[in-house]
């Protein structure tokens, strides 16, 4: 591996107080352009539903917008929550994107629903995706189906004992790589078993990373070399104290995640300073132990050390700094600064 890692971006298309979904999308498109110009490798968007703090409900559509707005960076999903969808539909969407933007599309898939149980029910038209059974339990089968359907030659299926051929798109000349996302031993073992590249959600808590990567590498059954990357939360400021202020707005968002409360639009820096924290400072500080917060030089150094510690040559940052009240709704300057400064220091 190289001395400094490649960098990529994970984006949930966050929505802050007073911001519309359209303005949040514009802010993410602006951030993607910064990442593209700074030499980042990929820009991935997540899938979440019925959450006021997140506008990224449809990765495939957002990817089309991102690819059109940028020049060379790879764009993809981080990830599509496969139990919410029919595998062929996802294969068709990403085969279409690959045909439109050849060599620039990644398909990252995950097992979680990305929403609450009621919305999950509505996404599945009141039932499970597929002819039978729990789609979460059938996740390994669905992963195999997506990989098969993504092949340019299509895949054979059997219905009622009769063979049929299904193709995600006609006359494909390339296919998007499929990445498996996860935060547990289960996902690591499954990625290894299927020989897929693996993304560990280190940004969740920073716990279990070494164990998951070891399981993946030791059990990898693919023909190509195993590939893995880590996701991290990052915030850059003029000083560490300033960076911590930008990070503090996430204190309320994290409290909602931990307690099951509604995830309201993300506080601005000023709102977060006035509001009473719903997670005690000591708990938030402990959680932030796995975050990368500080000056650009400090964050670049800590990300490089992380990559070397876990022997990965790529780190995907989620820039989570808040906006100020005075920031335009179509931009989040601190997120852009985090990406730009880290690109300058680590990518040249």
Brief summary:
To bacterial alkanal monooxygenase alpha and beta chains. The chain has 348 residues and is of the alpha/beta class.
Overall description:
This protein has 348 residues and is an alpha/beta fold. The chain has helices at residues 21-38, 59-69, 87-100, 117-123, 139-150, 185-194, 202-205, 209-219, 240-248, 250-259, 269-274, 281-287, 296-310, 333-346, and strands spanning 6-11, 42-45, 74-77, 80-81, 105-110, 155-159, 162-166, 178-182, 198-200, 228-236, 292-294, 314-319. The protein has one domain (6-346): Luciferase-like domain (TIM Barrel), CATH 3.20.20.30. It has 14 helices and twelve strands. Helix 1 links the parallel strand 1 and strand 2 (42-45). Helix 13 (296-310) crosses helix 14 (333-346).
Search tags:
alpha/beta, two-stranded antiparallel ribbon, 14 helices, 348 residues, eight-stranded parallel β-barrel, globular, 43% helix, TIM Barrel
